[in-house]
């Protein structure tokens, strides 16, 4: 059977009453960083926005520091360090591919991020062999814009509205794939999220792959929220392509990846035109490379690739069950703790989703999501995301056009941060905010905010804030933890 490696036991365990003492799974850089509150105190930053960008694993930062002295021009440099750097880059590529279970003939292309990877693939979807028309792509309305707009712009995309349950949504996908094939207009590709960036939910990959392959379509998984949270294997699941981002995978050094089947990528229009992607250039003709180089014109991001590979090494060495247990305990505490508070609604797409990743979106009735996020930052030192999360169609369908608040957890999240959020939202509902807030230039801000304005502090001022350690903070945690 093809499955994602998940932790079924964690599903069965009762929801924890508190996760206050749950430690992070792995050390991340900056976990002790202090931020100012409006009441003059400083507290360790509770980074509950890791679904947007995750902090670097300490091991990733260490690897980058070790590699930097060896850094030199790659691929075309004759110098010794150029050769070392080239080898580092190509080794990193192999590590990244292996981490997501690349098959022998798959390509691993180093990109900037998931958006870049999906745009690249969109340009490689082959035209219909009979009609010569643009290749057809099927996509659900639950997707992040990165997994919607590239298909709409470059291919012939059909957007299917998901149903209220996983099984209803699967049935819709199967029916659409089948009827398109019967009508002689088969889909070339099904583009699906590995985990929703709004709710962490996902469709069962094995069922989706079976339906798509049965109708002659390939599958690309948007792995932006999946790969940092679950072990995933192309070879085991049969998924054809996966796209993901280093900055969400604890390696914020500007690299991401697209991994998958070679034929489309070798035949597709090179993503970028420029040096490194070509074998031979004449003024009237160009002979393009095949393989990853075809789509990686320009000087590659060696440090980004090395960092991403370091993150992959760390994640591969983790016990997946321990990591899933940690994340699941934090997620369920968020869902249960927030769900118990009057006027709080936790968003979900499906009634029967299993094993969502650590992303929890909610609203607090009577409070604009932007105000909730500003309050959490100003009065509790908590970073969350508010808005529509680049998933406008889904938020609209679920009735949250005014947006929502999203908290997300990862390997570096401590239970204390989750408890702080639950307690802060309860205080908001019970007592209201302590500071005054107003909208300025469409953003909720504190009126007469006493905190230093980050952009006015200059580099040294900003660095000084970050240099303070947790020891200095222990006396001044909020009382309401
Ligand atoms: C599910 C999903 N897909 C795609 C993206 C785009 O990722 P990136 O901004 O790294 O390209 C995101 C980012 O939040 C995401 O959560």
TrEMBL record:
GO molecular function, one term: transaminase activity
Protein name per Swiss-Prot or TrEMBL: Aminotransferase class V-fold PLP-dependent enzyme
Provenance organism: Isoptericola peretonis
Cofactor: pyridoxal 5'-phosphate
Domain Aminotransferase class V: 47-421
Catalytic activity as recorded in UniProt: (sulfur carrier)-H + L-cysteine = (sulfur carrier)-SH + L-alanine
Keywords for the protein's UniProt record, in alphabetical order: Aminotransferase, Pyridoxal phosphate, Transferase
Family per record: Belongs to the class-V pyridoxal-phosphate-dependent aminotransferase family. Csd subfamily.
């Amino acid at each position: 059977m093809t499955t994602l490696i998940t932790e079924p036991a964690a599903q069965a365990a009762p929801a924890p009453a508190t996760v206050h003492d749950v430690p992070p799974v792995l050390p991340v850089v900056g976990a002790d960083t202090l931020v100012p509150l409006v009441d003059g105190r400083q507290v360790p930053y509770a980074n509950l926005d890791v679904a947007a960008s995750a902090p670097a694993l300490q091991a990733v930062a260490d690897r980058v520091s070790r590699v930097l002295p060896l850094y030199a021009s790659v691929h075309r440099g004759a110098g010794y360090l150029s050769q070392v750097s080239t080898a580092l880059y190509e080794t990193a590529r192999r590590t990244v591919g292996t981490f997501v279970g690349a098959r022998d003939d798959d390509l691993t292309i180093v990109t900037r991020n998931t958006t870049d990877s999906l745009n690249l693939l969109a340009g490689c979807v082959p035209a219909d062999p009979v009609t010569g028309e643009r290749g057809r792509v099927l996509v659900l309305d639950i997707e992040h814009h990165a997994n919607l707009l590239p298909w709409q712009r470059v291919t012939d995309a059909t957007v299917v509205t998901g149903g209220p349950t996983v099984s209803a949504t699967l049935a819709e996908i199967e029916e659409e794939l089948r009827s398109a094939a019967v009508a002689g207009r088969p889909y070339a590709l099904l583009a699906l999220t590995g985990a929703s960036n709004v709710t962490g939910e996902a469709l069962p990959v094995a069922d989706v792959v079976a339906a798509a392959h049965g109708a002659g379509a390939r599958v690309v998984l948007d792995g932006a929220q999946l790969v940092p949270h679950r072990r995933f294997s192309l070879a085991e699941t049969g998924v054809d392509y996966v796209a993901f981002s280093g900055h969400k995978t604890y390696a914020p050094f500007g690299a991401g990846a697209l991994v998958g089947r070679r034929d489309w990528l070798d035949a597709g229009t090179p993503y970028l035109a420029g040096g490194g992607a070509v074998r031979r250039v004449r003024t009237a003709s160009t002979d393009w490379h095949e393989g990853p180089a075809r789509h990686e014109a320009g000087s590659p991001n060696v440090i980004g690739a090395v960092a991403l590979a370091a993150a992959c090494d760390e994640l591969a060495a983790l016990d997946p069950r321990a990591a899933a247990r940690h994340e699941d305990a934090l997620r369920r505490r968020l869902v249960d703790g927030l769900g118990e508070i009057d006027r709080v609604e936790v968003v979900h797409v499906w009634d029967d989703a299993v094993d969502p990743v650590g992303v929890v979106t909610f609203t607090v009735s009577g409070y604009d999501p932007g105000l909730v996020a500003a309050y959490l930052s100003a009065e509790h030192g908590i970073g969350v995301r508010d808005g529509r999360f680049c998933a406008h169609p889904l938020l609209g369908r679920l009735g949250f056009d005014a947006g929502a608040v999203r908290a997300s957890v990862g390997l570096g999240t401590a239970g204390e941060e989750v408890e702080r959020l639950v307690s802060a939202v309860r205080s908001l509902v019970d007592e209201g905010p302590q500071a005054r807030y107003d909208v300025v230039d469409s953003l909720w801000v504190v009126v007469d905010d006493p905190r230093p304005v980050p952009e006015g502090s200059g580099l040294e001022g900003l660095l000084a804030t970050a240099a303070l350690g947790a020891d200095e903070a222990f006396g001044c945690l909020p009382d309401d933890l």
